[in-house]
TrEMBL record:
The keyword Ribosomal protein applies. Binds directly to 16S ribosomal RNA. Residues 1-24 are annotated as: Disordered. This is Small ribosomal subunit protein bS20. Pfam families: Ribosomal_S20p (PF01649). The lineage of its organism: Bacteria, Pseudomonadati, Pseudomonadota, Betaproteobacteria, Rhodocyclales. Keywords: Ribonucleoprotein, Ribosomal protein, RNA-binding, rRNA-binding. SUPFAM superfamilies: Ribosomal protein S20. One of its GO terms (cellular component) is small ribosomal subunit.
Amino acid sequence: MANSAQARKRARQASVARAHNGSLRSRLRTAIKAVQKAVLTGDKEAAQATFKASMCAIDSIADKKIIHKNKAARHKSRLSAAIKAMS
């Protein structure tokens, strides 16, 4: 356990930040799964609409440095490719 007041405060702040970051990561995973589910249904227009909404969430989380910008770009690229592969 932290011994100084400063260390106790940093431990409290880290706990709050970890919870907040976890919820953002969960939102990211949910957005990605929503697009993948839309792709599996086969409705291209619905998949594109879901992808557009999830792109905003992915970019937002990358801007906050919860995930690296390259990881965000990789997710967007793969989801986009999956939608383009639909026929």
